[in-house]
Amino acid sequence: MFFVTPDTLLAWQRGSVVAGADSGEPSQAGVTIHRGDDGRAVTDDGSLAGSVIALDECVRCWMSCSGASLSEVVEAASERPARAIGLEVQLKPEAFADLLVLGEDGRVERTMRRGRWLL
Known about the structure:
two-stranded antiparallel ribbon; single chain
């Protein structure tokens, strides 16, 4: 989803747990989420439960469709939305960090969650 004002472009994505799940039936807030036959994330009763596309895929698509640079797209998908909701955006010594190392093509190469490398 994109939000445009005269001064800025923000991008955010409301992904579901299905977006990052390899298999099985993940749950979110006690509700089982499925990937429907049409590719949507849905609950048992068929209610929409978020997106099945991961944010890194959105970044790559945006780069491909718009010609924007990786740094422009990452800023619009991370720093700008965080600032828009009042979060401080900076790395600090001793703070836990969630980081992604992206390749030039926007694919995730490494992931840090709460200060520990996962991938």
